[in-house]
Amino acid sequence: MKPAVLITGARAPVALHWSRLFHAAGWRVVVADSLCAPLGRFSRTVACFEPLPSPRAEPTAAFARRIDEIVAFHDIALILPTCEEVFHLAAVASSSARPGEEPRDRFWRDKLFAPSLEVLLRLHDKARFNELVTHVAPAFVPEFHRLEDPADVQALPGGDWVLKPCFSRFGTQTLIRPTAPQRAALKPTPQRPWLAQEYIGGEELCCSAVVNEGRVLALQVYRPLVRLRKGAGAGIVFEAVDTARHWAVAPLVQAIAQALPGRGQLAIDLRQDLNGQFKALECNPRSTSGLNFFTSGDGLVRAVTQARETAFRAPAGWLMGERVASVLVGGLPTLGLLPRMRSLSAWPGDSLAWWDQARAFAEVLRLARRHNCSLEAATTLDIQWDEPFAD
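The structure corresponding to this sequence follows.
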């Protein structure tokens, strides 16, 4: 009998990619999401889609019970989170998850491919991540300040700053070189802290990694070429970088992996300063687009399931993205990218029908209109985590 994997966050294109990789590796793929029509639901590589309650909109206990049911019914051997539901899964997996709650220890705790909630939030909180880099890889840390009070904003020294909430995603609410009125309007609190980070205008790089107990098992470094919003926002076209840039970033990933216990995924954004040194800006402890460069023969599934290292690196200049979306967003200048671009959605024998893609997009569009927010914000409304960890 095939082993079964539960891939959560089925709305994400990278979850669709994980489903295809696990199916090709001989696994039975179950996907789950609190959206009704997530993209991954429509893949032929998926044996079953399981709906979830929103871990934000409903009591945590309902989410926990539903995961219990799915894991037991399908005899799940591995739970692989891809989006911010990873924080909620970690919260209900361990008795140490949320201070003040009743102790619990889910029977599927050891099946979850993620570290503890405390580790996740140390990476997710942008200021705490910068503090971690200060200790483990100081050459990679930019100047930064944690802001928990309006007085902290007023006390910032002169210079160019980037201000953003410590808990945010897709560059939402980020202020680049803010004006004096914008700075004066900020009202950070200990419950909703902000990060002030020195502005670095050089080359941008991102990386996606799989780590396990101090080892980096898979790593892909890439750059976003086209974004949904100019200068910020989610990327939709990505380019693999050369070997030199890969090795410029690898020591940072290794240092972070060695500093934190457990297994899971790391995704780090960096920029190069005037001295040529890359500086770490923030970390997402979940799946990101660099993993889409791996094909079924590149060992990514073995990295997760067998803790075996893969030496795969996508060739420099290799492009990954969605053709139609790249032209719609990037305009005519992106037409020259199309001949060498691999599609995020294409897969032998598993091309998604346009109406299924339209259903997935329409659901997010309805959420954006209902909540009067951007499409990017709508994709995480029901799963995002914006709560500091109480030490």
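Residues 48 and 103 are 31 Å apart (CA to CA).
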